[in-house]
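USER:
Working in pairs, take the chain set out below, taking as long as you need, and write a paragraph about the fold.
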Amino acid sequence: MAITAARPDPIPSPELREPVLRMQEVDKTFNGGVVALRRMSLEVRKGDFISLLGPSGCGKSTALRLIAGLMRPTLGKIVWEGGASRDDLGVVFQEPTLMPWATVEQNVWLPFRVRGESLRSTRDRIMETLELVGLEKFAKSYPRELSGGMKMRVSIARALVTNPRLILMDEPFAALDEITRQKLNDDLLSLKAKTGATVIFVTHSVFESVFLSDRILVMAARPGRVIREIAVPEPYPRGIEWRTSPEYAAIARQTSDTLHSTLAPGSEAH
């Protein structure tokens, strides 16, 4: 199914959305006895924008890798709901991970290439997706000719092009300057509105999580697990008015206080 730029039907309230995925009491222990996650549970529903927020080493990226099937849980299970599966995933990493010898359209073609579909047969979908991210005029360009923000847009287009039910984003904007990062935050919400995507987003930034998310899952480290879920009830779309509102500041303060409590001596993070 091709991605269209038309706005989808309004997303129902969270409790009415159909489930897509559940992590149920998941543990992950690495060789040497390092416990990355313990009893990690979360539910993802259609249309969610969930941020995993926590200190370094709390297992945020490990949780994404488990969902993506790049590693297996030590205990617990990950359940896909409503006919969804790992085939319905798009993934965006912290680095764009583009092939430097390939053009923009060839990089976005990669998921189809893996499936054995030709560039010619998928070019319309590729160009449609590049238009969504504002790069339709750069289809024949090479990564070396693009800015950092443009490279990340190509990575996002590659994740979107197969119209996945769930998109995993692992700190995709962390290496960018603040102006570019805010612009891509705005663009990401615009893309979500156009595609109806469901997103799990890993970030270290309290302000980014509050701006983007409808649910923030604050994680504690050693071992990693969700200690609090914070709802962000502000409707989409969101813009500069939301970033500068008292309501935004209040949720950011609440989120920041929760995050800092995980680092306090004697807290449940230890």
About this structure: Confidence is low (pLDDT under 50) at residues 1-9, 266-270. The chain has eight helices and nine strands. The radius of gyration is 18 Å.
